[in-house]
Amino acid sequence: MSKATPCRMPDILNTTDGQERRVGVEIELSGLGYGQLVDLTAKLLGGTSALESRYVSKLETPLGCFTIELDSDPVKDLDLTDESVPEVLRELGGHAMEVIDAAAERIVPLEIVSPPMRFSQLPEIETLVKELRKAGALGSREAIYFAFGLQLNPELPDLEPGTLVRYFQAFAATYDWLKARHQLDISRKFTPYIEPWSNNYTDLLMREGYAPDQRQMMVDYLNSNPTRNRALDLLPLFAHLDKPLLDKYVTDPRIKSRPTLHYRLPDCDIDNPEWNFSSVWNDWVVVEQVANNADDLGELRALFRESRRISLHNLTHSWLETSENWLRRKGYV
């Protein structure tokens, strides 16, 4: 991933209603003060900022409305004037807040959340990342307690169960390859929020002839994965499709309904000059392309099923090796 390449576009660029597909991007980082990050991002994107609440700013830009925030609700919501706060802290007032702010900005990620952007606008994010790196932004490798991510929320071409299942299958088949490329930092390897889907669900998903309707598709997933803490989180999508059904398995105010996938796996290695946003995006496009090539997806699923059997080949070859060789042979990478 040492060389920056242009952001590739998938073959399926539009939704079924003819609109260009969109994607939201979430970037976690440190190394810059909150005010510094807000001001610099507003300048780079040609926007204006407004403080909405403590550690939450909105940036109106030509690309839409960005949010910049400290990724910690307790710190954002802290009010030392509240009578429930111990008197000694209330007496310290602003001095205590300065200490808390300084500590929080060092160990809690600052987060840039984009609006839904057209796929063709993603080079703007590549430029933003490069300029933030020049300004001193830090990513996951900087300290053991940093576990910063770069998350993508790609809109789907349509919401038909057959389409969704193909995307799920393509991701399951390429998960090991994606993780090897983008889940590099030890602090994130040991965090629970980027876990793979359960083996039982993945085996069901990859069965020959698996073709559930919407309700069965959701039930199959939620029976084994009733949590946001997955490398590809499907709960925002399910909240959009059938929230009452989702609520039977998971109730969490952090789940935001949207017709997208929530890809949480990659590190944000922003201070590494060998790391590029385009590398993360272009590898996601591999998932897109596999999902939308029925013959290749069927072949890869058959290989996956074969990899679950006991054989001499499987004892001497990992699924990572097998899937990477297949992707190269087929010209996806």
Can you walk me through this structure?
- The chain has 333 residues and is of the alpha+beta class.
- Helix 6 (161-182) crosses helix 12 and helix 9 packs across helix 10 (235-247).
- The protein is globular and about 55 Å long.
- It has 2 domains: 20-137; 157-259 and 278-333, no CATH class.
- A hairpin with a 2-residue loop joins strand 2 and strand 3 (56-61).
- The strands form 2 sheets. Strands 1, 2, 3, 4, 5, 6 and 7 form a 7-stranded antiparallel beta sheet that branches. It has a two-stranded antiparallel ribbon with strand order 8-9.
- It has helices spanning 34-45, 73-76, 87-92, 94-107, 123-135, 161-182, 186-189, 199-205, 214-224, 235-247, 277-291, 294-307, 312-316, 319-329; strands at 22-29, 48-53, 56-61, 64-70, 110-113, 117-118, 150-154, 232-233, 262-263.
Overall morphology: globular
Question: What's the domain count?
Answer: 2
Instruction: State the end-to-end distance.
Output: 12 Å
Radius of gyration using CA atoms only = 21 Å
- Largest sheet composition: 7 strands, antiparallel
The secondary structure category is: alpha+beta
Oligomer status: single chain
Mean pLDDT: 87
